[in-house]
Design a protein that fits this description.
The complex is a heterodimer of chains A (about 650) and B (about 525). Chain A is mainly α and about 650 residues long. Among the domains of chain A are: about 270 residues, no CATH class; about 40 residues, no CATH class; about 30 residues. Helix content of chain A is about 70%, strand content about 5%. A two-stranded antiparallel ribbon of chain A has the order 1-2. Chain A is globular. Chain B is mainly alpha-helical. Chain B has one domain. Chain B is about 70% helix and about 5% strand. Chain B has 21 helices and 2 strands. In chain B, strands 1-2 form a two-stranded antiparallel sheet. In chain B, helix 1 packs antiparallel against helix 2 and helix 7 runs antiparallel to helix 9. Classes of the chains: A mainly alpha (about 650), B mainly alpha (about 525). Chain B: It is found in: Endomembrane system; Membrane.
Chain lengths: ~650, ~525
């Protein structure tokens, strides 16, 4: 697909887009530098900074929509970031329709979650630091989506990785939290290395990393280069978005405070991989093999996430695996290409609402239940937590795709698109997506029923569950409303809005009539939900029960952790130990041995006293004179 | 302004300071420290003035001075600075006051003389400035050798455990390297027209016989590779870095080791272009091995100072491949790396020193959960770690990125393996941070009274300039790259190489910038 890409310069109100990043960054810096002095009011500054970015984002969004459709972009070069030889990298920003919807999602949902966190973190002595990190995250995430070149994207990309690390291991005294944070950062860095090499490939072949220059010249690349480049970007995307094979960090990331899980590990950061692929649509659309790989990763991950999610008993882990699975749908969408790019973004936005809503709901449940996370020990909470129950219910119906809630409008079109592929793979990926819908309905219903319905199964210290304060329920209500209507509101408007980025959608014929796919989707959803309702409406055993092969495998994350450990972790540890030994005994031992041998004082080097230095120096000097003499003799001989 | 004899004054100033401080009686330790600190600040101010006077777009070598020394050998006191030397001089001028302030109480625990210690630091600054400012090869060689003396005594007399062993090992290693270099220097004098002047020698370089040039290259290279150090000449550094006082260790890896990489750029590449190209594949392989090998070793260390020393060896691998990739991005990246590594690893060593001073132990296993006791210090430690793993927003990111992208355009395979080093860097930094400051509090640590005291005002003053510079240069590296660029481009043209163009772009199809 030939594409010319030109971005207009930022003018008028849009020349202030740098403020979007600068405001939360400044707030984070203030909160960190002032230290304890800001403890009393720091959280409000944090909320205010994100809210200010949201208001500005809205202003810029409206300004952008006021421009003619072909001109809807605003590029701003702040300063020369790197200029060496023929490498030029702007510290530059780009506000276009795609960046615009992300800005609104990040700052909009972000504001609500910040507000919620004021209540959630109220009794935590580190609340100010928490908001500093939270603001830092928002700033880095905005830089990620607003950069006008891949180096800026990488800058934000590693920045959100840092914020994610800091927030996962926020309760650093817990060894599990510290380990989970490190695991997240390391697995992300594997992806980051892929992204970095991708950037090197761009520079080596196209001489630039600016979006417009890269996208405009994709046609100059050989198809092998496009494939390699795309796979490298995909590796980065998979790392950040918790997709196979770099998915294992995301469920562990639930060690962080729940608002972190909602904002970073559900609504925004983990969707950065989808953003990367969507932003690079010119590259991914240029190679069909590449697209098949992306679709396969998405389809595989979405099924894996469903299967594992159905076997977990920790409310946040179920939601985390659900996130892995839902992002699988988004990867499926961006992999399908064409009109499905926009569909994936719509699902991403809708998911941002309903998954943030449910994570905050889970936090509200934990808040009222002494941080209990085991759904076996919940039950009947609808009586005690009306707001949480209703809003979580909205999220539940939205994610499983009950019409007319938001998941129906965002997920169903992706499934239909999978059936529109031109060959037999339409059946493969289409049915994978359909099956995923049924499984999603099953595990989400299980989660919902076990938590809010059925008999009460509380532990001794948890006899009096209570609803959360208003500062937490208000964001829940707003996000709950979003879960209800966002999909309907966005499904055509956002698709049209994104036309300047992805191009016009060409109609394809599906291998099955659209109506049939639609009915099948709803039928499978109802089937999955109904089955879960029947199985779990009377509660469940309080302890994990012996299970068959499939459930055991699912409980153990389909053995992916075990494989990581066996293939990377253990050999890595052994290799490190072996090298430490080798370096001390081998290389260094060799050197010491030679030194001792020459001096004829074997073993004495370890007991050397200063007195020996002089004799050593003397013998070295003698040696030096000899070597120099020999050298001179040879040189003069040659010269003669 | 450019006629002002910046370089000779800058070189001699710390020597005078060293003598003055040495004359202070042992009992008046505070006076000696204050003089030393003030003196290093004067050097810093003069360096800043010199930085401003330097014209980035002007001659390759500026502030040239030359005085007679040994006429019969044509050895002269010649000083001159190109952009590469200038940024290194600036780094020295910044690091010394910081280290002097950081080392304020280092001598108190032992019964040794504070005036001597701080005099040695200034003497070391004299040799460091001299070695980077020299433009006469004999003068360079002399500085190259005498810089061992102050550092030998700093490690041997003021160091920690196994200091004697480490000092001797450090001395012998360097001496062996110096020996090779001495041979090469004399050889060069013989074949290069009986002069030690760098400029004259580069002009004569093209007439040197190919084989001879390769041998001479090797003589210099071995000396520099030991100094840097590159794999497999590295084993002296963990011992020296582990035994040296933390501040001196910061100078050791932050400044002194750069003499090796600086020497390669200034002497190996420009004097022996053909030999440089011929040896480049081998040097690249050593660099790549060093990155991976030293990073894996860093992961496995249980001694904070040895760990940081190993990370430095990995970083020198990056500098090495950047130099021998022969592209402007990689070359400029390498020089920038030398500066940024000085700031970042300097900071890391200094902060490690603050931990070690409190705990009285280098061993990671003696820490654990320290963040609960000293949160701010732990935060600074974490920041230094982030800079060391080259996170965007910190200066080392720019240099690492430049080295890798510049190397990739000519040697993609090496660049890809080297990029794996950034994953290992995250591993050694985060694991170090986790074992030291995170997790449950080590009960033995909680009982150490000094661990109850978080960062002091003096320590804040020490770390603040480094943190500021690391962030500033992480967002806006241009003032430094603009100075480095012309010197690197000149060096690349000495070597006779040009950057490859983008492989896939047809000129007329490019979107105009």
């Amino acid at each position: 697909m030939e594409q010319t890409v030109e971005y207009a310069s930022a003018t008028g109100a849009l020349s202030g887009i740098w403020l979007l990043v600068a405001i939360p960054l400044a707030s984070a810096a203030i909160l960190l530098l002032l230290g304890k002095r800001a403890d009393k009011w720091g959280h409000w500054l944090g909320v205010l900074a994100v809210a200010a970015s949201f208001v500005l984002g809205l202003v810029f969004f409206i300004s952008l929509s006021g421009l003619e459709e072909g001109q809807r972009s605003a590029q701003q070069s702040l300063w020369d970031f790197i200029a060496v030889g023929n490498l030029h990298v702007d510290f530059g920003l780009l506000f276009d329709p795609l960046a615009g919807v992300f800005v609104l999602l990040i700052t909009g949902v972000g504001s609500l979650i910040h507000l919620y966190a004021v209540g959630y973190m109220e009794h935590d002595p580190g609340r100010r630091k928490f908001f500093a990190y939270f603001n830092l995250f928002v700033a880095a995430m905005l830089l990620l989506v607003l950069g006008n070149n891949y180096v800026m994207l990488y800058f934000g990309w590693e920045g959100v990785g840092l914020a994610s690390y800091l927030l996962i291991s926020f309760w650093t005294t817990r060894p599990s939290a510290a380990t989970a944070g490190k695991k997240a950062f390391l697995m992300n860095r594997v992806g980051d290395a892929g992204l970095a090499i991708g950037i090197f490939v761009m520079f080596a072949t196209l001489g630039t990393t600016q979006y417009d220059e890269v996208f405009g010249n994709v046609s100059a690349l050989s198809s092998t280069t496009v494939l390699i480049l795309g796979l490298l970007l995909l590796l980065g995307a998979a790392g950040k978005s918790g997709q196979f094979p770099l998915h294992a960090w995301l469920p562990d990331a639930m060690e962080g405070p729940t608002p972190v899980s909602a904002l970073i590990h559900a609504a925004t950061m983990v969707t950065a991989g989808v953003y990367l692929i969507a932003r690079s649509n010119a590259i991914f659309s240029a190679n069909t093999t590449l697209q098949v790989v992306v679709v396969s990763v998405g389809a595989l991950t979405l099924l894996m996430g469903c299967i594992i999610g159905a076997a977990k008993d920790d409310i946040k882990r179920v939601l985390a695996w659900s996130t892995v699975s839902q992002i699988g749908y988004m990867f499926l969408g961006v992999g399908l290409g064409g009109g499905a790019y926009a569909l994936a973004i719509i699902h991403l936005l809708a998911h941002g609402f309903f998954k943030a809503n449910m994570f905050l709901g889970a936090g509200s449940v934990m808040h009222g239940m002494h941080d209990q996370v085991d759904i076996r020990r919940f039950g009947g909470l609808r009586k005690y937590m009306k707001f949480t129950w209703l809003t979580f219910g909205a999220g539940w119906l939205a994610i499983i795709g009950i019409p007319p809630l938001s998941g129906y409008y965002s997920k169903e079109p992706i499934i239909a698109s999978a059936f529109e592929r031109g060959d037999w793979t339409a059946w493969l990926f289409g049915w994978a997506a359909l099956l995923g819908a049924g499984l999603t309905a099953f595990y989400m219903t299980r989660l919902f029923v076990l938590t809010f319905h059925g008999p009460e199964r509380y532990t001794e210290d948890n006899k009096h569950p209570h609803e959360s304060p208003f500062i937490m329920t208000v964001p829940l209500i707003l996000l709950g409303l979003g879960s209800l209507v966002a999909g309907y509101l966005m499904h055509t408007s956002v698709a049209d809005w994104l036309v300047p980025v992805f191009g016009e959608h060409e109609e394809h014929h599906a291998v099955m009539p659209h109506g049939v796919i639609n009915i099948l989707g709803i039928a499978l959803t109802v089937l999955g939900a109904g089955l879960a309702w029947l199985l779990f409406r009377k509660g469940t055993a309080l302890e994990p029960q012996p299970a068959g092969v499939v459930v055991t495998a699912a409980r153990r994350n389909l053995y992916t952790d075990a494989i990581n450990e066996a293939v990377f972790e253990r050999p890595g540890i052994y290799l490190t130990r072996a090298l430490v030994f080798l370096d001390n005994k081998g290389i260094d031992g060799l050197v010491n041995g030679i030194a001792a041998g020459i001096g004829g004082t074997s073993g004495r080097l370890r007991r050397l006293q200063t007195g020996f230095v002089r004799s050593y120096a003397l013998s070295m000097l003698t040696g030096a004179v000899l070597v120099v003499g020999a050298f001179l003799a040879i040189q003069l001989g040659w010269l003669a | 302004m450019n006629d002002f004899p910046f370089l000779s004054i800058l070189t001699l100033l710390p020597l005078v300071g060293a003598i003055v401080v040495a004359l202070v009686p042992k009992a008046k330790a505070e006076l000696a420290k204050t003089i030393a600190f003030g003196w290093s600040l004067v050097v810093l101010v003069l360096s800043i003035v010199m930085w401003i006077a330097f014209n980035a777009g002007g001659d390759r070598f500026q502030f040239r001075e030359s005085y007679a020394w040994i006429p019969s050998w044509d050895a002269r006191f010649t000083f001159a600075a190109d952009g590469i030397a200038l940024v290194m001089l600036m780094l020295i001028a910044i690091l010394f006051p910081v280290v002097i302030l950081a080392s304020w109480h280092d001598v108190e625990k032992s019964n040794r003389s504070a005036p001597i210690y701080f005099s040695l630091l200034l003497a070391f600054e004299f040799t460091m400035i001299g070695v980077f400012a020299a433009a006469d090869i004999f003068l360079f060689y002399v500085f190259f050798e005498i810089m061992l003396i102050p550092m030998y005594f700093i490690i041997g007399s003021f160091g920690g455990q196994r200091r004697q062993y480490a000092a001797v090992k450090f001395f012998l290693y360097s001496l062996v390297g110096g020996l090779f270099m001495l041979a090469a220097v004399i050889g060069l004098w013989v074949v290069g027209g009986h002069t030690f002047d760098w400029t004259k020698l580069t002009e004569a370089a093209s007439s040197i016989d190919q084989n001879t040039a390769r041998w001479l290259f090797l003589g210099f290279f071995v000396a520099f590779a030991i100094k840097a150090p590159f794999f497999p000449f590295h084993t002296w550094l963990p011992d020296a870095g582990g035994a040296a006082p933390a501040g001196a260790a910061a100078l050791l890896v932050g400044v002194m080791d750069k003499v090796g990489t600086f020497g390669i750029l200034r002497y190996c590449l420009s004097l022996f272009p053909e030999a440089s190209r011929w040896f480049a594949p081998a040097a690249l392989v050593l660099g790549v091995i060093g990155i991976i090998y030293a990073a894996l070793l860093a992961v496995g260390q249980n001694d904070l100072k040895r760990l940081v020393s190993y990370t430095s060896i990995a970083h020198f691998g990056f500098i090495g491949i950047g130099i021998f990739a022969f592209t402007t991005q990689a070359g400029t990246g390498s020089v920038l790396y030398m500066v940024n590594h000085g700031l970042a690893t300097g900071l890391l060593f200094i902060v490690v020193g603050m931990f070690v001073a409190r705990r009285g132990s280098n061993l990671i296993s003696d820490f654990g959960g320290a963040g609960k006791l000293v949160p701010v210090l732990a935060g600074v430690f974490f920041f230094a770690g982030l800079a060391s793993l080259a996170l965007p927003g910190t200066a080392p990111f720019i240099s690492e990125f430049l080295v890798l992208i510049g190397t990739f355009t000519v040697h993609p395979a090496y660049a890809v393996v080297a990029t794996a080093g950034i994953i290992l860097a995250a591993a050694y930094v985060l694991w170090m941070v986790q074992r030291t400051t995170q997790g449950t509090l080590n009960p033995a640590l909680a009982e150490v009274p000094a661990m109850k005291k978080d960062i002091t005002l003096r320590e804040k003053v020490v770390v603040a300039p480094l943190i500021l510079l690391i962030i500033l240069l992480g967002f806006y590296p241009k003032p430094v790259t603009d100075v480095i660029n012309p010197a690197v481009e000149a060096t690349m043209s000495d070597v006779g190489v040009q950057d490859p163009g983008p492989t896939a772009v047809v000129a007329n199809e490019r979107v105009a910038r």
